Amino acid sequence: MAVNKITDAASLAGDVQSARDLRAKFKTDKEAGVKAAAQEFEALFLQMMLKSMRATTDQDSLMDSEASRFFTGMLDEQIAKDISRTGSIGLAKVLEEQLSLRINGQDAVSDSGKAREINHDLNAVLRAATISASHGDDLPLAAFRNLQAALERATVNRAAANDGAVGEPVAATPKAFVRQMWPHAVEASRDTGIPPQFLIAHAALESGWGQRDIKNADGSPTYNLFGIKAGASWQGKSAEVSTTEYENGAPVREKARFRAYNSYAEAFADYANLLATSPRYGGVIGSQDGTEFARRLQQAGYATDPKYAEKLAAIINGATLRQAFIG
Q1: What does pTM read for this prediction?
Q2: Which one from 77, 96, 152, 270 is the annotated catalytic residue?
Q3: Which pLDDT score is estimated for 74?
Q4: Assigned architecture for domain 174-326
Q5: pLDDT per position as a tens digit, 2-48
Q6: Taking the alpha carbons of 248, 254, 260, 263 in that order, is the dihedral positive or negative?
Q7: Which of 176, 234, 270, 308 would bridge with 303, disulfide CB 3.0–4.6 Å?
Q8: Catalytic one among 245, 266, 289, 292?
Q9: Comparing 165-174, 178-187, 239-248, which segment has the lowest mean pLDDT?
Q10: Is 270 considered catalytic here?
């Protein structure tokens, strides 16, 4: 089709210019060049995903034409680049780290099994991308999600190899906490019908904005952002720690077992599943008002603190969360 020739020519011209820009950056600033290359690579994946998604929609309309498809392709390319610059997907970050280590010859974990796992994952990604790009194939949504999961594992593996303990980085500020948890909160929002900012506020209350993580016996994190306890029906890992509960309005210290996860993504997924499947939280599902969401959680017995709803509503409606979103 003529439109394919047009878009292919435009893409080729863009690729040539991008390659020139990257070479120039590498000459003047190696780190900036690595960052740009990683972002370009991630943008390619996103553009392929958008192309696959558009291919599933009806193209027979009055507004459909070679020109409209051409400009839609340009729009998808720009969207992909803009998303890549935000760092919300995570692919560019992992690739940037790996490329920097290789270029600088500073891969301190090159002999470890974890490093081999990381290199294997990333090399597989590179091979898949090269084959797909050379044949002009689309990237299915399921494959893209599998790629994200593999990259999450690679990130955790690198942290384990470098630091001696598996762990995602802990956000240092509320803004960083929101940015780190936002993708997981969006996924949990789809399952619960609750706005993602309410879910992040709940995680912030329970975890002190990520600073009060429940630890396993060996000191590694449990990623339990929501303070969910490990009851008799829980089949996963758990950690026993001291906690504060309230009896007749008075605080009491006691030992309790809490669920342990492998990542923040798992924590959000389990939290969403708890709210969506437990009858006691039926009134919480779909809450669209922050204060009402907090009140319903307390009424359902999520926590024994008599001021729990008040504290959660204060975070949802407070300046700290608002500033974290607007920067």
Answers
A1: 0.52
A2: 270
A3: 72
A4: Orthogonal Bundle (1.10)
A5: 444 434 434 433 444 555 565 665 567 666 666 776 677 677 766 76
A6: positive
A7: 308
A8: 245
A9: 165-174
A10: yes
Secondary-structure percent of the chain, ordered helix, strand, coil, rounded to 5 = 65, 5, 30
Q: Are 72 and 54 in contact (CB under 8 A)?
A: yes
Give yes or no for a contact between 96 and 34, defined as CB atoms under 8 angstroms apart: yes
The more confident residue out of 69 and 8 is 69
CA distance to 81, 165, 212, 262, 300, per residue, from 222 (Å): 34, 12, 11, 7, 25
Domain ranges in the chain are 2-163, 174-326
* Helices within 87-140 (DSSP H only): 91-104, 113-135
DSSP characters over 186-241: HHHHHHH-S-HHHHHHHHHHHHTTTTSPPBPTTS-B---TT--B--TT--S-EEEE
Taken as a whole, the chain contains a residue count of: 327
98 token code pair: 């790996």
**Cα 286 from Cα 176, distance rounded (Å):** 27
